Fold this sequence. Notes:
The complex is a heterodimer.
Chain A: H1 2-24, E1 28-32, H2 39-54, E2 58-62, H3 70-83, E3 87-90, H4 99-107, E4 112-115, E5 126-130, H5 132-146, E6 150-157, H6 163-178, E7 181-189, H7 194-207, E8 213-216, H8 219-231, E9 237-242, H9 245-252, E10 258-261, H10 264-279, E11 287-290, E12 293-295, H11 315-321
Parallel strand pairs in A: 1-2, 1-3, 3-4, 4-5, 5-11, 6-7, 6-8, 8-9, 9-10
Antiparallel strand pairs in A: 10-12
Chain B: H1 2-8, H2 12-40, H3 47-72, H4 80-98, H5 101-124, H6 130-149, E1 154-155, H7 159-166, E2 168-169, E3 172-173, H8 174-192, H9 194-204, H10 206-211, H11 216-242, E4 244-245, H12 251-263, H13 275-294, H14 302-324
Antiparallel strand pairs in B: 1-4, 2-3
Helix pairs in contact in B: 2-13, 2-14, 3-8, 3-11, 3-12, 3-13, 4-5, 4-6, 4-11, 4-12, 5-6, 5-11, 7-11, 8-9, 9-11, 12-13, 13-14
Amino acid sequence: xxxxxxxxxxxxxxxxxxxxxxxxxxxxxxxxxxxxxxxxxxxxxxxxxxxxxxxxxxxxxxxxxxxxxxxxxxxxxxxxxxxxxxxxxxxxxxxxxxxxxxxxxxxxxxxxxxxxxxxxxxxxxxxxxxxxxxxxxxxxxxxxxxxxxxxxxxxxxxxxxxxxxxxxxxxxxxxxxxxxxxxxxxxxxxxxxxxxxxxxxxxxxxxxxxxxxxxxxxxxxxxxxxxxxxxxxxxxxxxxxxxxxxxxxxxxxxxxxxxxxxxxxxxxxxxxxxxxxxxxxxxxxxxxxxxxxxxxxxxxxxxxxxxxxxxxxxxxxxxxxxxx
Amino acid sequence: xxxxxxxxxxxxxxxxxxxxxxxxxxxxxxxxxxxxxxxxxxxxxxxxxxxxxxxxxxxxxxxxxxxxxxxxxxxxxxxxxxxxxxxxxxxxxxxxxxxxxxxxxxxxxxxxxxxxxxxxxxxxxxxxxxxxxxxxxxxxxxxxxxxxxxxxxxxxxxxxxxxxxxxxxxxxxxxxxxxxxxxxxxxxxxxxxxxxxxxxxxxxxxxxxxxxxxxxxxxxxxxxxxxxxxxxxxxxxxxxxxxxxxxxxxxxxxxxxxxxxxxxxxxxxxxxxxxxxxxxxxxxxxxxxxxxxxxxxxxxxxxxxxxxxxxxxxxxxxxxxxxxx
Lengths: 324, 325
């Protein structure tokens, strides 16, 4: 009996699915990222475009012309509320300061997915992001394992007080606490800038004759530190975070030990996927915190592919990618 | 009233002697910082660290040296950092595509110079205040660079080219030679040439300068072009030292360059200051960061200490200047 009913229901369901699919096509997804300068957000945007294309939707990119500008993102939100896109994929330039902006989106009843930096307030239908703390923890653990659990370590920090930096550095420090043989020589600011990291490293090498490991809170600073080490003909194992193309090249050539994959491409893909799925009344995963992947010389190949040629994870993959 | 007039048309020589006193105070301040750091850190006075500080100061100095001339005319160039970023990205692309560092260097210098010239045209022909003209230029350059780089990074340059920023010659880093050359040329140009003296005169009183037959517009054009070209030079040093370029390098370069000029005693009101003072200004900024790294001062305190030093330096300057007058 149930079987027979199933046969009847199947074509009905399929027809329903097809019509909703057809009717729902062509949504416009407004994608908000923090700046045009950090390669990470370029990967987010390509991921979002990629997913939207495969689902027959469109994206509109909103990027502050002045990097991470709070007033500019706020006025972009005001513009978007007037324009009324089908849904929004949102990275706040500042996780606290943008809360009123998110509330404006909520008031306008536009569905919104939060990606990358978790907003301190507002209603989101889903969050997709990486876990900075475990990225810091896992990359630092990998460095310490390579060094045999001992050695003199320096940390080069990002922008003080930024969400990513606080969590990454906390992860570094917790990993260091696990290795009794490791000694933290210094934890100095490089503000995510390669020139500043290079100069900090040059200075630290003056007062420390033996540095075995460098934990940099992003790839640009890691590469800056490597340039300083090269310039002084010294060797140390260096790790970065973000998994940028530059970092992959440096891992390939053996200059960089490893980079934590922040996986902007997947964040862009999955954020956009969740937004479109909710518009089409399909199930949505409310929280995807991507598992930290440490990119090393043994597993860099999948990351060594041009962005445009990468493929987005499927909905089934999404569950597996999540740490929780 | 008579006093001001007397000052305005005073012969250039008097600026020199007043500036000499200012430079002396600055040197004293730098030495004081050195003495404190030498006591606090064993590694500070090592030859390696001194060369280190000089090399680090050089990048800020290159940008700030050209900027000094602009400030001497009572102008400001806010676009220098953005100019460095665009010039670096374009020079880097030229080196990547042609494989010729020489061509890349020329392109970088030309790009910087052209931007400077455009600033000069806006200030002279269009009579836009320099603060606004170069602020607008900053946005134009940022826009161009962001669009051009599209979030990518340029990296990996020929070893020969890398020597400019990271190489050594007779035990001294190559940027330090360049620093000495431009310090010498800049000082001689400002203090010992007619053009240099005319620049001081324009800054002190543009009306008087024009009335006394100085081609004000042409000198201003020159000054902005020099500032842009020095940004172009800085972009080459940056590229070859860092082995990479990205769109957002400019932001962290502009304010330290302006700070170096001001700490160095060049007045925002024009007519007073020296290129040598700017060198000391760049040195003081670098020393402070170097010292905090050597002493492992917490990342939390570094911006605060830098800020206080900048304010103290300018305050001391005002005080000594008043006394000198």
